[in-house]
Amino acid sequence: MVNALDEHERTIGFGEFALGQIRALRHSANPRNYEIWYVYATGYNTQLNEILNETIARNGELSQAELDQLYESYLTHLKTSDRIDKVGARVVGEIDDLVGTISDALGRTASYDASLAGADQKLASATSREQLVDIIEALAHSTKQMRETNRMLEQRLTLSKDEISGLQQSLEAIRAESLTDPLTGLGNRKYFDRMIEMAVEGGLTSNQPLSLLMFDIDHFKSFNDSFGHLTGDQVLRLVGMSLKNAIKGQDIAARYGGEEFAVVLPNTPLRQALTVADQIRRAVTARELKKKSTGEILGRVTISVGVSMLRPGDVTDALIERADACLYAAKRSGRNRVICESDPEFAAATRGQVA
Asked: How many CB atoms lie within 10 A of CB 249?
């Protein structure tokens, strides 16, 4: 078991290493850069460490732009659970305080009830004006205290309502963040799985068309191998931005996994979906990829796209499988193209998969 002294020495070591790296690489000693190198020292985030090692080995340095990109990609989303814990603790604390206030108010209400009961008995046995005055004054005093108690309780309930409403908004923001891919800003796989189920159910119920687009970045591994993972992340952002710019209304865009993306198009027939898919493909291809650290032009990115449309009695997995098969056909047919279920390449790919 690690004692407090050992933990102190260990964390001081991490901190000294972080500052040493900042000095050696001449980075700004801001909290973000410190956190990157502190996490690196702990070894807890192996993916971050691999990319840092690779980038330094390749370039001999790290630019501030690259550090900012690393932070956004590999550290910001790790704070979600901490934020949930903090909000949860505040909710529990607020509830405890409110319960204490209500318990106190209930105690004062019981005391007031007892005062009323005692006054009733005294009134029945009172024989003089002075006794009646004393009883009435006592009742007036108890009533005034009760009014004050009720006023304080009302204020506390109002404050609690506002506080809990604010905490609820915080949880909603965290929930939205948990469904967002931190690198591209699109929905993540969890978001996609949830939303496509709802979209398929809605399409089947309303008998409205629904199309699914599956995208894959061509030769993505070669970008990572040739230019490093940071450039690969830039490619992912480029495709993600192109999807964001293309969708509207009820459309759903997500990073499906790795270099694969998905777009769900409710109320969209197959031919219209093909037009959207090709617009996105052209938008991606039209943009030159530039290395941020040097300004070097690295060429253009291309994507392959598979498109399927919901059929009567379909299930979600079948819709995804057909779009994926179309994507596979686009890859086999030379990449940088769109293939749908009605294309002969899809039938050929399906036969090849069965065989």
From this structure: 7
Spatial distance between the Cα atoms of 171 and 177, rounded to a whole number of angstroms:
10
Q: Are strands 303-309 and 338-340 parallel, antiparallel or unpaired?
A: parallel
Q: What is the pLDDT of residues 41-94, one digit of tens each?
A: 888 777 788 888 888 887 788 888 788 778 777 776 555 556 566 666 676 677
Q: What letter does residue 350 receive in the DSSP assignment?
A: H
Q: Let me know how long the chain is.
A: 355
Please say if the pLDDT value at position 355 is more than 50: no
> Is residue 56 packed enough to be buried (19+ CB in 10 Å), middle (13-18) or exposed (0-12)?
middle
User: Residue 195: what pLDDT?
Assistant: 94
Task: Of 338, 66, 33, give the one whose Cα is nearest residue 214.
Answer: 338
Q: Which residues lie closer than 8 Å to 171 by C-beta, 6 or more apart?
A: 84, 87
The more confident residue out of 278 and 178 is 278
Q: Is 0.70 surpassed by the pTM of this model?
A: no
**What distance in Å separates the CA atoms of residue 12 and residue 195, rounded to the nearest whole number?**
45
Ordered alpha helix ranges (H), 75-219 = 80-125, 129-178, 189-206
Q: Residue 66: what pLDDT?
A: 81
- Let me know: does 289 contact 297? Beta carbons within 8 Å: yes
Angle at 68 between CA 67 and CA 73, to 5 degrees: 100
